[in-house]
Write the structure tokens for this entry.
Amino acid sequence: MSGLGDSDRYKHGLLAYFSEEEREDYIRATAKDTVTIRGDIPPDLQIKEDMRLLVISDDQTYLTHGLHKYPAKFIPEYPRWAIQKFLPSPGHTVLDPFCGSGTTNVEARLHKQDSYGIDIDPLARFITKVKTTPLDISILEQAQKRILSRLQKPVSKDVEIPDFSNRDYWFRKEVSRDLAYLKRVISEEITENDVRDFFLLCFSSTIRKVSNADPELVLPKISRVMREKERKGRSIDVFASFRAILKRQMPNIKMFSLKCPKSQPYFSQVIGKDARQIGLPRETVDLAITSPPYLNAHDYVRAHHLEMYWLGMLSSAGDKLKLKSKYIGTEQVHVGDYAQLHRTGYHKLDGTLERIYAVDKRRAYIVYNYFVDMKKTFKEVYRVLRPGSHYVMFTGDNVIRKIPVQTHGFLVECAEDVGFLTELTFASELIKRFEISENRNEHGGLIKEDWVLVFRKE
């Protein structure tokens, strides 16, 4: 193995956990030459099953794509490629059933396509709404002047600070006061809903930067680095942080609004919370594009709970647990749920579930439930797609209790079982791998590559 790169060493290190048949399949599937593309993927690129792409993105902060941090975002080049390949003319309808921060929906609007987005995460829905809504630039600039003028005056002590669990652990008292005042100023100075939402999203981007949590970590934690900064007398200025975010994001929302003016007839709408129940009539969608939740990879509620408390999307720890229980792949399960092994009827997947169950019954049920729920979403997407239309999905494989889970292959089985034809599957390496970690030097839920799955409804 002396000639292997880091990616290959990682993969070969996993082979110890595969059966002999799985090992041969995995080596065959990953022994591909990599085609490197910088920027857009040509829609006419002849992609074959044995190809591996490495897409170097230049557009992750282009226009409104970078308005707010969001974990595990897929790069704009992916949905752009799918839209250009399958919808060469304007005026069609795109659906993202797991819209996250709205990457697909932004690209759909830029390409003069209507789009719908669905996500269980309330912050995701809010981000998507703001990122896809063009604004009146004169109203936007006037609102900015009024807000910044108010922030130059003494802060009122008569502000309502939200009360939530461990608030004073995460925020200094003076920081909480300034955040509450900033939010009040935004609410008082702006009456136009869409413009106010843009400034509230900038307010949300400020929260982690002025908290005690390490802003470099996905999940909030007061790390050793932050404790050392605190010991040295870390300076926190809420209003300066907010102004810096406005300076960076105002040009982006203005440019987006010029490229996609409100006068255009194309729309982007967030229409629901659950991809298992899509509120659209049958056969009304021309293309679906998504990156579904990674299995066992990320706690979205924990990652966003500080922002959601300040935005009024959560009010208690009970709210947080209730919301977590609704996510596909949730770990909020009861002991009775995994008292016995559950099977899906898919031979290879059930074999994997048996191996996980032998070491972790609870985790086996979580994996089982993930694929059951994902099959429900396939049925719904199949229902709303027009005949001949495509569903393009970007997903990653996983390792659960040192047992490989070939997620992309099992999702193909689910899709085909509800009626989809699989037109193409290929691997796309991640230039910056996706890691979920509480510490800067630890890895968990490591995702090294995406699998691109292209399905078609006959």
Q: What stands out?
A: Confidence is low (pLDDT under 50) at residues 1-17, 433-445. The CA atoms of residues 261 and 349 lie 48 Å apart.
